[in-house]
Amino acid sequence: MPDAALLVPNWNGGQRLARLLCSARRQTCSFAEILVVDNGSSDGSPEEAERRGARVLRLEANLGFARAVNAGLKHVSAPWLAIVNNDVELAADWLERLFEACRQSDVWFATGRLYSAERDGRLDGTFDTLCRGACAWRAGAGRPDSPVFAQQRRIRLASFTATLLRTDLFNKVGELDEEFESYIEDLDFFLRCARLGFEGMYVPAAVAWHEGSGTLGRWHPEVVRRIARNQLWIVAKHYPKGWVWRLGWPILVAQSLWGLVALRHGAGRAYFKGKLEGLARYREIRKRHTPPSSNFARLLYASELELLDLQRRLGFDWYWKLYFALT
What we know:
By secondary structure, the chain is of the alpha/beta class. The protein has a domain at 221-326. The chain contains 12 helices and 12 strands. The protein has helices at residues 14-25, 45-51, 65-73, 94-101, 169-173, 185-195, 221-238, 243-264, 268-280, 282-287, 294-314, 318-326; strands spanning 4-10, 33-38, 55-58, 80-84, 88-90, 107-116, 123-125, 128-130, 136-138, 153-155, 162-166, 199-210. Strands 1, 2, 3, 4, 5, 6, 7, 10, 11 and 12 form a 10-stranded mixed β-sheet that branches. Helix 6 (185-195) packs parallel to helix 7, helix 8 runs antiparallel to helix 9 and helix 8 (243-264) packs antiparallel against helix 12. The chain is globular, with a radius of gyration of 19 Å. The termini are far apart. The relative contact order is 0.13.
């Protein structure tokens, strides 16, 4: 089996981090090294990680997920790298299953089937899909497990919740965009991969359990603010010239509906704050990035069609039912 390092960004991970490290040590295919990149934790989790045999890279403050990963990249040498959130627990054969799927030379990353940490049979998610309106859907999130997600398949978009990658991919595509801080930084990274033709594999046999937004909470104002801001920066970095005329309506619909969801969860103010921050730097970010060629439009439409097909087969969430009805 190839050598793989495990990189875990951490901030006050507590017992969640301890569970992850225990599951990492139980792997049927051992990690060559385990590196915890700590964002200035104050709960003793870095010391606990060291007691459990992990190497800890201490950062001076909570600099965000993207900076933690980039800092960790400079301290690992294995040809494969697993990036895993601190609130994940891995099945014993998780790494082995992903390695089996990565034997093909044109598979650059792989991700598996994530279940809810509550062990109630619900999915936390699988691979990612993106609609034309710049809103992503982690396929299967919140749904009961389904035969739809039992088949291995090629994918373009994944999540850094629990993913194995060829370390060389970062040399070819670049590191994570630290301006995104946390949330959607993985979407930005895998869009860059897709634009350059690097594909991955969804491996349902590679199972893990995820608590989900274990650090702050799924609808914490800081989470909503960053997602709302970063959605606009995805458009700034990746959408082609003339997107306003071709994609303006789907973007308006998707972002407005997501705002209603945030409002429903008491995070309306954070949503508007994030959008204002995104708009304030939109032109600056747009100028720094060359608009993609027409292949990105094809990629975007293909991802939305994949999302639509999955929603039809599983039954529509109200958000996506409204989005597709309006667009």
